[in-house]
Amino acid sequence: EPRVGRVERHSLLRRRVDGLSAADADRIADTLCDFPMAMELAAAWLRQTARPLDTYLQQVNSRVSSVLNGSPGAGESQQGSLFAVWRLTVDRLGNERPAAVRLLELCAYLSPEPIAHSLLYSDAMRNRLAEETGDESVLDPMVMGYLIRDLGRYALATVDQQSGSIQVHRLVQA
User: Fold this and answer.
1) Which residues lie below 8 Å from residue 150, measured CB to CB, with a gap of 6+?
2) pTM score, whole prediction
């Protein structure tokens, strides 16, 4: 995925995070090596958690440091940034809704192409999710809707209401 320019990164981040200054958009983009998917995940995280930016960037930097060995090239640095932001997001969602993380894993396993809502809402899928997570609330289709919503809310998947599908980004599947 290509890097984005200064104008694009400001636009991407400031559209998604209310009140974000240009300087803070630069700090986020610099930390994430201008990697669009990582910035999308960061914006979703900041929007959903209202965590202070400095705290968030410290967590990302800490995770990136633990992922990278030595002095990485640009590609490795981008990959490390993406992994760090993805891991923070998945960990947060796992604390809130462990069944949503398991649903993400199942979707990542199933297909890089859009997955029909009819499959996700099926009795078989809800029973499997309840069995694997020990959370019987997922048997309720309304709760399954909350799980799908949460995946979209944190930018871990694209939820397309019009086509009735959900799609996990190919990089998340790796």
Assistant:
1) 93, 96, 97, 100
2) 0.69
